[in-house]
Specification:
Elements lengths: L10 E4 L2 E5 L6 E6 L4 E4 L5 H15 L5 E3 L5 H4 L9 E5 L2 H7 L1 H10 L4 H9 L6 E3 L2 E5 L4 E6 L9 E5 L5 E9 L15 H12 L4 E6 L5 H14 L6
Parallel strand pairs: 4-5, 5-6, 6-7, 11-12
Antiparallel strand pairs: 1-2, 2-3, 3-4, 8-9, 9-10, 10-11
Helix pairs in contact: 4-5, 6-7
Amino acid sequence: MDVSWEGSGWERLTGRCGRLRLPVWDCTAGLVVGDDAVLLIDPGSCLREGAGLRVAAERMTGRRVTHLAFTHGHFDHVLGAAAFPGAEVFGAVGLDALLATGRDELREDAVRNGLARAEAAEAADRLVVPGHPVSGEWTLELGGVQVLLANVGPGHTGHDLAVCVPGEREVVFCGDLVEESGEPQAGPDAVPGRWPAALDRLLSLGGDDALYVPGHGAVVDAGFVRAQRDTLALRYGVSRA
């Protein structure tokens, strides 16, 4: 069942797959529509933003979002999750424990980056942690489309998950392993020495013809991902031999 994306506000990537670029931090939220289930990738930075995504997804599909995937654990990618009651939540193995014990740091990071303290506190208090840890790969059957969740990190963080969606072209949601609207950001939880290898894994999953969806910015191709890999390898002195 292909979806009509025109006029929805979502950017069409394939017949079953699209994305939104959210305001303020230019964070990407992805949507995959199956016959039986709907997957949303990265539910936004707070409950208000998550609720807006839920309304937009429901208006688009006529159904509720049944599954969430976190590409990693930064506030702008996870704090909206409580706006999707009943959804099954997936993340890289270990992210559940990290989020369960790191609510205070997540809240403070959101505030440092400009989220109102009251919104950050509410979202952190109601934070949803993944109930389905992905170690290696997990095939998610949505009805008419099988989505591959792949634990490709560490790199940008210690818990990076890619989401691969088949279609007219393979679509790879990269999270912040790839960024287009600015330089890749290596915070204190990054693992720079392994980041280039994580990008090699992304490229092996998607191939030369895939669409690669960064965590921030415009959709890119394999050439962009290779160039970013080489830049990171040079920046952090990682040998590719």
